[in-house]
Task: structure prediction
Amino acid sequence: MSERVALVTGGTGGIGTAICRRLADLGHKVATNYRNEDKAREWQGKMRSDGYDIALVKGDVSSPEGGAAIVAEVERQVGPVDILVNNAGITRDTTFHKMRPEQWSEVINTNLNSVYNMTRPVIEGMRQRQWGRVIQISSINGQKGQYGQANYAAAKAGMHGFTISLAQENARFGITVNTVSPGYIGTDMVMAVPEEVRAKIVAQIPTGRLGLPDEIAYAVAFFIPDEAAWITGANLSANGGQYMGW
Result:
C-alpha cells in the first residue's frame, strides 16, 4: 500500500488512539487534533514511547473555521490529507423533554457539523489527486436509537446520510466514503461505568462481551486499501451482533 497522509479527528480518545496506531502500522503518516494541551502532550509522549510519531494539531472541529485551520496545519506539517477519519464525538445525555438547547447544539456541532467542517477543506484536493478515503465513525445508537440520546442518535444517523450522499458525488474521482458504526466498546469511558450497568449492556450483546478499540480500528482500515476501491456508501456495523440491520 502506498504511504498516505491520514487525519483522524478525536484521535487521543480510546477508539481514536487505536485508529491512529493501526493506520501508522499500515505505513501512513498520521495526524490528529486536540483541545486540551496537557492531555494531548501526555498522549503524544506515550505514543512516542510505543514507537508512534503522530502529528498533533490544536483545533476545534465544531466550527468551519476550526476545521479549516486544523487541515491547513496538518498539510503544513505532514502533507495533503488523503485519508480522513471523522471520529470526534461527545455526549450530553438526557431525556429530550429535559434537554437544554446547548446540550442539543454542542452534540450536533461536534458530532455532525464537524463532518462538514473537516471534509470540506480536504475534498477538493482528493478530487484533484483522484484518490481519497473519508470514513465516518457513527454508532449503533445512530441505527437503533437510545433512551436519553436524541441528540447523539440524530447526529450519528446524520453521519451516514452524509456518507451515502458524498459517496455518490465523488465515486468517479477515486474517492470512497464509508461509515463504521461501533457498538459498546471497552474504552476508559465505558469501563468507568458501574460494573452492574456494564453487565446489563453486555447481557444484550450476542458475543457476550464489549468490543475492543482495535476491532474498530480494523474495520476502519478495511476501507482504505486500493482493493477496497469498489466499496463506497457502506455502513459497517461492528457491534458484536447487538443490532443486525440490512
Remarks:
- The chain has one domain: 5-238.
- Residues 196 and 202 are 10 Å apart (CA to CA).
